Description:
- Its cofactor is [4Fe-4S] cluster.
- It comes from Malassezia equina.
- Pfam families: DNA_primase_lrg, DNA_primase_lrg_N.
- One of its GO terms (molecular function) is 4 iron, 4 sulfur cluster binding.
- Keywords: 4Fe-4S, DNA replication, DNA-binding, Hydrolase, Iron, Iron-sulfur, Metal-binding, Primosome.
- The protein is mainly alpha-helical and about 500 residues long.
- It folds into three domains: about 1-170 and about 245-280, Transcription Elongation Factor S-II, Chain A (Up-down Bundle); about 175-235, no CATH class; about 305-330 and about 395-495, no CATH class.
- The chain has 22 helices and six strands.
- The chain has helices at about 15-20, 50-70, 75-90, 105-130, 135-155, 160-170, 180-185, 185-190, 215, 235-255, 265-280, 305-315, 315-330, 335-345, 350-360, 365-380, 395-400, 410-415, 420-430, 435-445, 450-460, 480-495; strands at about 1-5, 45, 175, 205-210, 220-225, 225-230.
- Strands 3-4-6-5 form a four-stranded antiparallel sheet. A two-stranded antiparallel ribbon has the order 1-2.
- Strand 5 and strand 6 (about 225-230) form a beta hairpin.
- Helix 2 (about 50-70) packs across helix 4 (about 105-130).
- The chain is elongated and about 95 Å long.
- The protein starts with a strand and ends with a helix.
- The structure holds iron/sulfur cluster.
Amino acid sequence: MFRTGVSGAEGGTPSRAQVVHHPMRGNGLAPYPYRLSMYQVPPVQDITVEEFEQWALDRLRVLADIETAAARNQSWPETKAAIEARSAAHLPLHSNSVAQSGTASGAAAKTQELLAERRKDHVSHFVLRLAFSRTDELRRRFLHAETTLFRWKWETEHLAEREAFLRSQDFVWRAVPAEQQQRFREQLLAVHPRMAATFDTESFVQVPWHRVPDLVEKRRVFVHQGTAWIPTKEQTSLVLAEFQSGLQAQLELTARALPRLDEDDRLMPVLEHLSMGSMLGATSDYSSASLVNTDGEAITLTADMVVPLVRQHAPLCMRHLQETLSAKHHLLHQSRLQYNLFLKELGLPVEEALVFWRRSFSQMTDDQFKSHRYNIRHGYGLEGGRHNYPARSCTTIISGFPPGPQETHGCPFRHFSQANLSAALSTHYHISPADQAEILASVQAGHYHVACTRVFELTHAAQGVRRGDGLGQGESVSHPNRYTEASWQRAQQATTDA
Ligand code: SF4
């Protein structure tokens, strides 16, 4: 157990703005009276190291979906749907109204649930804030994802709850005096022509113009002497701007305090792991499931089935390994590890795996194959420490040992040169130059899983997969086995429909 307080990292004693965080203790939800939070006060409570990491990973799943939605240019309704689904599973956050219905004992239980949800939200935000404050790039990505998450919470919150939350905050908005509003009537109406009939009943607030760059950029606001005049109705932009600028400042303060954490050998590996996952924009939820036939029965793979299955359904990383194995009759150590665990988790029994590998290593003597036999069985948990090793996820493959000369493991989207990737996309999938350009742009932006997801969509278009569908319902690629399973399911579905 350890305490999560990082007040040093937040710049010391909270300011006046920070301590107004919990004024409505009377609603029985202290210290979390609202579902919305500006995260101004760091948590100071005991939690376990497991909670510290697990809660952060759960939040990271939501943020990764937000990043993926942005990288795939998804609309706001699509992004909202993705956040909704992922939050429900990993970071549920219900409104206060949940605790106000039913019997007294039911309401008390609901109150405890709300408090537990909000505690997790609070702690996980601050853990990721630490993990993401390490570089400019991570700070930028965290800021965007957290602001988007806040926007979703804001838009899905009840009006009364929003207003109560706003009253609890200490925002620097100033009401525009009525006589000033009249004085600039013409300029204000030029920006808001639809207000012509209602102008005298409207009201405006003024904020420094740089707090609402989106409105200034779109010329949706009147700017006067460095202040932007915003209709009180456009509260969402204002609140988002407050959230964003507050978090940006806090991230910079946290970054300055980070060296002080370097000595904590419990926290630093966790924070590094979290920020690495975030760089890849994907976290995997995959747990192995057998491939099933059209009757829904699990199929047992045989050695003979491996090559056609991989050529038809596996992602480029595994396809590349198989093509290299077929051409050279050999794979180097890391490649063997990556491929063996992939095939194991697809449902290839160890006896069939030994047949497959022995045949593939056709230029080797039985004696030379002995050590490989041991390593294959080791991967199945049948030798040595008998660990049941999982198949590698995209995050593990992309962030693991990069392939050296002659090596073929890794992720082609991460580790191939542009020319080689382009050639592989043409050779294996016949992807057009225009589609390749889009895939290569995702790769250049570091969104490897987005590029891989687009390849899945393009190569399954004949089965009705469209842009934005991903592996199904917008799911992005996060695991080679999940990719293969989704491709297999599509083919089975097509057979059933035919
Ligand atoms: Fe394989 Fe994942 Fe890379 Fe796709 S993104 S090629 S599944 S490692």
